[in-house]
Specification:
- This protein is of the alpha+beta class.
- It has one domain: Endonuclease/exonuclease/phosphatase (Deoxyribonuclease I, Chain A, 4-Layer Sandwich).
- It has six helices and 14 strands.
- Helix 3 packs parallel to helix 4.
- The longest helix is centred in the middle third of the chain and has 21 residues.
- It is globular, with a radius of gyration of 17 Å.
């Protein structure tokens, strides 16, 4: 089972590019982020023609996540549970969708679009940290079920200096703040495996290049798209690939797909 994650930066604006990649890579499951459309505006037919079942949690103009699967999707959840007394009951951002991919070895998969949080030290950063706390709590609850699951998406976290071409340029950025990185480590320390580090781990493997200042041409990238696996999913891990070449296509997203392969 090949499970992909990709921040497409507007699925309708880049539909031709996205469909081209689906036809080339043929993932079994795809987690899309930043689709930037409400549910009824998601171009489901384009993917259904390729044999995919579609589940969407959209939002007008901003955010939005989707799950596409060749196998049926069951037990779909849209949005993270709220933490008691956390003050986040008004969170209406479309940033999380989860479902069970049915089959001989069912796998629970989530598509995640974690808040950017910039500028650091503002209400936007406080929202990012509260969202990460909610994700940690939900991951802890999922782990209690002792089933294979994959939390994949745009985490907006640069885990370590090695995950940026020029780490000093990110010192003041919300993606690289010590608190951000601690929260990401706390999530992994629940017992989750970061698929890329486990299956490859080579430095300089970035998943995002900004549109500005020739970042792509200079390979000024960062690694912020991740897939975290439960112990049961980690036991099935067979490989990881970053489809860097997609960034050179016409009308690309600023992110590229990350594909995790499970023996499931």
């Amino acid at each position: 089972m090949r499970i992909a994650t990709w921040n497409v930066n507007s699925v309708n604006a880049r539909l031709e590019t996205v469909v081209r990649w689906f036809e080339e890579a043929r993932p079994d499951v795809a987690c899309l982020q930043e689709i930037k459309c409400v549910d009824e505006r998601f171009p489901a037919e384009a993917f259904e023609r390729l044999g995919y079942n579609v589940a969407v949690h959209g939002q007008k103009t901003y955010n939005g996540v989707a799950l596409l699967s060749k196998a049926p999707l069951e037990d779909v959840r849209r949005g993270l549970p709220h933490l008691p007394d956390a003050g986040d009951d008004a969170d209406d951002h479309a940033r999380y969708i989860e479902a069970v991919v049915s089959g001989p070895q069912p796998v629970r998969v989530a598509s995640i679009y974690l808040p950017n949080g910039n500028p650091a030290g503002t209400e936007k950063y406080a929202y990012k940290m509260a969202w990460m706390a909610r994700l940690e709590a939900h991951a802890r609850a999922l782990l209690a079920w002792e089933e294979p699951f994959v939390l994949a998406g745009d985490y907006n976290v640069i885990p370590e200096p090695r995950d940026a071409a020029f780490p000093n340029n990110w010192q003041d950025d919300a993606l690289f703040q010590p608190a951000t990185r601690r929260a990401f480590r706390a999530l992994k320390n629940l017992g989750l495996t970061e698929a890329y580090l486990q299956a490859d781990g080579a430095e300089g493997a970035f998943t995002f290049w900004d549109y500005q200042a020739g970042a792509w041409q200079r390979n000024n990238g960062i690694r912020i798209d991740h897939a975290l696996l439960s112990p049961q999913a980690a036991d099935l891990l067979a490989g990881v690939a970053i489809h860097k070449h997609v960034r050179a296509w016409d009308k690309p997203s600023d992110h590229v797909p990350l594909v995790v392969e499970l023996d499931a």
